[in-house]
């Protein structure tokens, strides 16, 4: 049987880029999507140099038409996606809800919820028809309970949990698996994006603690994907050692 195909959204940095490397190293053929062509070209070159099979798709998951054209236009040899990693997502702002930015809200909801749903809708019917496949959604500890300033972002990740649970029920009569991986504090571009490029504020998020890395989460994602056929890892919460919850962090 041909090597399995993994489609990873938001593969330009952080957890997505780490997943691209881990899955390629494990022998998967990888389809990598993202908005930044230059970053996708970098990871493509890196993986091709290591002998991996890579296909790059440049689109924003918020753009349903672009996503549809990209997935429906996959070359025949790339159409049968075995693992969909819905990783594309972001947080913007840390203001009280009553002072939130409308555009930030729209971007988070359109990416974290609607973009994930679009990719699921485009890819999962093929999995169900083939009686095999795995959807791995990157949620967050923020989806378990709100924290100060997290309001809408926390709501989007709570939605990822509910959407994952609902999909798992919907495909329970097939061989398709659904996993929700919920990271805690991970040092990626996440905080830099949240604070609209303010590197000092972003760096302060990780001071006094050894945060998780994109590789740590990618290890969990790959582990879930490689579990035996009869084992479905439904949900995994991954925290840094000195993090007790989404809002409890012990700094040293």
Summarize the structure in words.
The protein is of the alpha/beta class and 252 residues long. It has eight helices and seven strands, in the order E-H-E-H-E-H-E-H-E-H-E-H-H-H-E. The chain has helices at 14-25, 37-49, 64-72, 102-130, 151-170, 190-194, 199-205, 214-225, and strands at residues 5-8, 29-34, 54-58, 83-86, 133-138, 176-183, 235-238. The protein is globular, with a radius of gyration of 17 Å.
List the helices and strands and how they pair.
Elements: E1 5-8, H1 14-25, E2 29-34, H2 37-49, E3 54-58, H3 64-72, E4 83-86, H4 102-130, E5 133-138, H5 151-170, E6 176-183, H6 190-194, H7 199-205, H8 214-225, E7 235-238
- Rough outline: globular
- Detail the poorly predicted runs: none
The largest β sheet comes out as: 7 strands, parallel
The proportion of residues in beta strands is 5-15%
Run of helices and strands: EHEHEHEHEHEHHHE
Mean pLDDT: 96
What is the number of strand segments? 7
How far is it from the N-terminal to the C-terminal residue, by CA? Answer: 50 Å
Helix content: 40-55%
Strand order of the largest sheet: 3-2-1-4-5-6-7
- Compute the number of helices: 8
Q: Which class do the helix and strand fractions yield?
A: alpha/beta
User: What integer value in Å does the Rg equal?
Assistant: 17 Å
């Amino acid at each position: 049987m041909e090597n399995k195909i993994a489609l990873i959204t938001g593969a330009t940095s952080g957890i997505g880029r780490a997943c691209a490397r881990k899955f390629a190293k494990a022998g998967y053929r990888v389809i990598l999507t993202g908005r930044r062509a230059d970053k996708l070209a970098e990871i493509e070159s890196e993986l091709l140099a290591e002998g991996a099979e890579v296909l790059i798709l440049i689109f924003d998951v918020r753009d349903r038409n672009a996503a549809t054209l990209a997935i429906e236009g996959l070359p025949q040899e790339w159409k049968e996606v075995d693992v969909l990693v819905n990783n594309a997502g972001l947080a913007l702002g840390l203001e009280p809800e009553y002072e939130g930015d409308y555009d930030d809200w729209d971007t988070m909801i359109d990416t974290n919820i609607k973009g994930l749903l679009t990719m699921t809708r485009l890819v999962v019917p093929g999995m169900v028809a083939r009686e095999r496949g795995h959807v791995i959604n990157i949620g967050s500890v923020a989806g378990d309970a709100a924290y100060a300033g997290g309001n809408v972002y926390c709501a989007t990740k709570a939605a990822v949990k509910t959407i994952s649970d609902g999909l798992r029920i919907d495909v329970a009569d097939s061989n398709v698996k659904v996993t929700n991986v919920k990271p805690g504090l991970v040092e990626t571009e996440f905080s830099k994006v949240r604070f609209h490029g303010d590197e000092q504020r972003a760096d302060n998020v990780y001071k006094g603690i050894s945060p998780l890395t994109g590789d740590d989460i990618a290890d969990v994602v790959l582990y879930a994907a490689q579990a035996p056929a009869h084992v479905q890892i439904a949900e995994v919460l991954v925290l840094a050692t000195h993090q007790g919850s989404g809002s409890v962090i012990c700094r040293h």
